[in-house]
Amino acid sequence: MFGDKPKQLPQHFALILVPEFTMMPVTSAIEPLRLANRVSEKPYYKWTMHSVDGKPVAASNGILTMVDGDLSAIPDHATIIICAGLNVQRHEDKRLTAWLRKIARKGTDIGAVCTGAHLLAEAGLLDGYRCTIHWENLPGFSEAFPEIDATGGLFEIDRDRFTSAGGTTALDMMLTMIASQHGSDLASAVAESVLHSPIRHHSEHQRMSLPARIGARHPKLVGIIEEMEDNLEEPLSPSLLAKQAGLSTRQLERLFRRYLDRSPKRYYLELRLKKARSLLLQTEMSVINVALACGFSSPSHFSKCYRAFYGRTPYRERGIPVIQQAAAG
Predict the structure, then answer these.
(1) Whose CA is closest to 35, among 153, 186, 155?
(2) Residue 262's pLDDT is what?
(3) For residue range 170-201, what is the model confidence (pLDDT) as tens digits?
(4) What distance in Å separates the CA atoms of residue 165 and residue 193, rounded to the nearest whole number?
């Protein structure tokens, strides 16, 4: 099980790089291992990098990363980490899926950072397990794999599966593993070496608090926005939102104008459109099903609102890779 004392030292981690992988989670996973060796002055860990075909892999930032070999170069006793990032659905590979299923049958510890959880789910390796994924990808993941328990936490360790949400969350996951295997003193020393203190618990929220995100701490405003975020598929009317908050509709309007410089209706629409964009980019759902999942009664109304906000139709959005959209601004 991941986090148990390894049967032999050094414990070998094999990181499998998927095209457009995000580099920060990869370095966040490796550096704690390097520092654990350095601080303890013992060879607790080793790591190698791999790709499906053994060729270098370009990260999402464009840096070409050399690897130590293909999948066949990974020893049987290695712990596997799938490293993915942008456009993960476009990089599904039958060779990787088949290989993952094969080693899973042997009881191998298998995990993922960032959107690598999608590839594990696609291979059927997260059925019956808790997992997590980056908050931007969570809506699409939940739509694609509704039977999987995706918690939205920083990381999840469940028996022989482990996942982290991306960014620096792999650092907390690996520090938790180090503490479990070799003691909290070593994990704390590693955390201090990278100026990361305290070590975060797996269940902490990925995103900043809602007041921090909107730049306002008005309790009624925060409560109303939480209601909006919880009811995107079946939007609540402004009058109902106002009533639940103990406000008049006019007071509700003034509150949103004062703190967010837009009407409640406009803010609610933007929330729904942002979720729609996430589903368009991260799932194979039809445009009409995306529209319904985000509270739009008709595809035509959805398309009109989407184009007005993003400058392109939902159909056009579906055909543009994420990296090109960023370049287009």
Answers:
(1) 186
(2) 95
(3) 999 999 999 999 999 999 999 999 999 899 99
(4) 22
User: Which among 33, 20, 13, 8 has a CA at the least distance from the CA of 193?
Assistant: 33
Q: Dump the DSSP string for 17-53.
A: EPTTB-HHHHHHHHHHHHHHHHHHTS--EEEEEE-SS
Mean pLDDT of the chain: 94
User: Do 302 and 291 meet the contact criterion of CB atoms below 8 Å apart?
Assistant: yes
* Number of residues that this document lists for the chain: 329
Burial status of residue 77 (CB atoms within 10 A of its CB: 0-12, 13-18, 19 or more): middle
Residue 228 neighbours by CB under 8 Å, 6+ apart: 235, 236, 241, 267, 268, 271
Pull the structure tokens for residue 98: 């088949």
- State the average pLDDT over residues 318-329: 49
Spatial strand order in the sheet of 79-83: 45-50, 11-17, 79-83, 110-113, 161-164, 155-158
Helix locations, 105-203, DSSP H: 116-122, 138-144, 169-182, 184-193
pLDDT (0 to 100) of residue 324: 46
Structure token digits, residue 142: 């939940």
